[in-house]
């Protein structure tokens, strides 16, 4: 029998997160205090994050135990299924074997609850009452809003203006879970007011929304800030994805030659790829990890590996990452979750070590791949996930050209049921491509902070 779906039992949900820091040949560069230029310590982060998450941020332990309360919530949708894309393989007429891990079965519709639940849990444990965050596409905001409802925390979400207008139903979902949603930039913060004074029609960016959320969280002793990507602890929480996929591929009798994920801040890519890259770093197995980003926000492929702020108003510490510059405001493409000026320091570090094969794809090419995937497999990917679909299809077509039967695994990190406006516009021929010119990239990079 040709199996389509590989499913695990609830008892198979990983009991620990995998920390790739334990397998690195060299640690990533330290995070610096923007005032002193010196490496920051836990006390610097304490106003924004609970101590358990700060410890995870700097941990070098290979395994970090998942608290039972978090595992209990994970059981609501985990383990997620691994599919063999047999109809897509036939449609492409490729000898490659294509597998995808489907994170869209979570109640919020993406991989984001894997970390939202963990973050809400640790904040609740440490007596926090309110969580403040930003959201690009609304997937992360929905995930944190749901986690807040589960753990009895208030949630305030700064939603990037362009997504706020494009995705009213995502906003509706967050409000249904009990969160308050404000379009960013807004009049509620100094950072927002400053941007609006200069650019009254600003479409917003994740960098601006982060500034607003951090500003509010830092002023309120009962509140903390929560981030849906980029930081080490967020990437760590996502490793349940790759660990499950490893077990499921074992059931199928396969091991990936290529693993593919889309990259905005790097968390779903890390989630699926880090357990495999770890095995490679330990010399156990080989594979190629492909990170696909939008051509309109190409931090890994065209950004500079440099110290930069995580936000536009320069409120965060300085992190070394691939960046387009903290003032960079990307085009209003529909993959709102991929519109971040930087890349996770850990993903950036691994890219510098030659462990990641990055590429950039345009919006139209990714929607075409998503539609082809939907017609073959019946699942409608989130616009962000379409970048991974495109990467996987391209690899499968290369296998066809070369007559090679490689095993390709990709992360279908979310569904696109709240993104129908984007699909309708794509099908009506209304979407456009945008690639940054060399001059535009250089201009955005000119504002990078100078670090000695
Ligand atoms: C469905 C989906 N995929 C991907 C991303 C990008 O984030 P990351 O690169 O951290 O997975 C987002 C972010 O909001 C998202 O909503």
Quantity of strands, as a count: 15
Q: What is the overall number of helices?
A: 19
| Structural class computed from helices and strand pairing | alpha/beta
Distance between the termini: 62 Å
Give the averaged pLDDT, no decimals: 96
Helicity, as a percent range:
40-55%
- Percent strand: 15-25%
Widest beta sheet: strand line-up? 1-4-5-15-10-11-14
Radius of gyration: 20 Å
Q: Major beta sheet, specifics?
A: 7 strands, mixed
Are there runs of 5+ residues with pLDDT below 50, and where?
Answer: none
Listed once per kind, the bound small molecules are: pyridoxal-5'-phosphate
**Shape from CA axes?**
globular
Q: How would you describe the overall organization of this protein?
A:
It is a single chain. By secondary structure, the protein is of the alpha/beta class. It is 41% helix and 16% strand. The chain contains 19 helices and 15 strands. It has helices spanning 42-45, 51-58, 68-74, 86-92, 113-125, 139-151, 161-166, 168-176, 190-198, 206-219, 232-237, 240-252, 267-281, 299-302, 345-352, 363-377, 385-402, 420-427, 438-445; strands at 5-6, 16-18, 63-65, 82-84, 97-102, 130-135, 154-160, 180-184, 223-225, 258-262, 288-294, 304-309, 318-323, 357-361, 407-412. The strands form four sheets. It has a seven-stranded mixed β-sheet, sandwiched between helices. It has a four-stranded parallel β-sheet with strand order 8-7-6-9, sandwiched between helices. Strands 2-3 form a two-stranded antiparallel ribbon. α5 (113-125) packs parallel to α6 (139-151). The mean pLDDT is 96. Bound molecules: pyridoxal-5'-phosphate. The site of pyridoxal-5'-phosphate has 21 residues, from α6 and α13.
């Amino acid at each position: 029998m040709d199996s389509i779906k590989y499913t695990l039992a609830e008892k198979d949900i990983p009991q620990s997160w995998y920390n790739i820091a334990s397998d690195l040949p060299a640690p990533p560069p330290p995070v610096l205090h923007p005032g002193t230029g010196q490496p920051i310590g836990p006390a610097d982060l304490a106003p924004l994050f609970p101590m358990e998450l700060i410890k995870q941020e700097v941990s070098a332990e290979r395994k970090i135990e998942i608290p039972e309360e978090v595992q209990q919530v994970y059981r609501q949708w985990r383990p997620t299924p691994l599919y063999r894309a047999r109809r897509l393989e036939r449609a492409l007429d490729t000898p490659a074997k294509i597998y995808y891990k489907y994170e869209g079965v979570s109640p919020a519709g993406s991989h984001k609850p894997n970390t939202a639940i963990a973050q809400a849990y640790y904040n609740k444990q440490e007596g926090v009452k309110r969580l403040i965050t930003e959201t690009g596409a609304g997937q992360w905001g929905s995930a944190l809003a749901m986690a807040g409802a589960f753990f009895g925390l208030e949630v305030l979400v700064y939603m990037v203006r362009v997504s706020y207008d494009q995705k009213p139903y995502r906003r509706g979902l967050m409000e249904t879970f009990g969160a308050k949603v404000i379009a960013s930039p807004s009049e509620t913060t100094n950072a927002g007011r400053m941007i609006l004074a200069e650019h009254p029609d600003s479409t917003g960016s994740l960098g601006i929304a982060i500034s607003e959320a951090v500003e509010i969280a830092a002023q309120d002793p009962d509140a903390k800030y929560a981030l849906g990507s980029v930081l080490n602890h967020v990437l760590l929480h996502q490793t349940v994805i790759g660990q499950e996929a490893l077990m499921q591929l074992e059931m199928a009798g396969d091991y990936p030659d290529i693993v593919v994920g889309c990259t905005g801040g790097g968390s779903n890519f890390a989630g699926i790829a880090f357990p495999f890259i770890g095995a490679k770093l330990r010399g156990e197995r080989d594979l190629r990890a492909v990170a696909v980003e939008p051509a309109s926000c190409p931090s890994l492929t065209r950004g500079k590996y440099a110290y930069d702020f995580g936000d536009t108003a320069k409120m965060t510490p300085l992190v070394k990452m691939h960046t387009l510059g903290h003032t960079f405001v990307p085009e209003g493409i529909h993959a709102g979750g991929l519109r971040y000026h930087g890349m996770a320091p850990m993903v950036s570090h691994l890219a510098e070590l030659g462990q990641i094969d990055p590429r950039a794809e345009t919006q139209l090419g990714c929607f075409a791949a998503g539609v082809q995937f939907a017609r073959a497999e019946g699942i409608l990917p989130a616009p962000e996930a379409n970048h991974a679909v495109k990467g996987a299809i391209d690899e499968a077509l290369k296998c066809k050209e070369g007559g090679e039967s490689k095993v390709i695994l990709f992360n279908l990190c979310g569904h696109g049921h709240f993104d129908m406006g984007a699909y309708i516009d794509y099908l009506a021929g209304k979407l456009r491509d945008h690639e940054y010119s060399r001059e535009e990239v250089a201009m955005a990079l000119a504002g990078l902070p100078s670090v000695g």
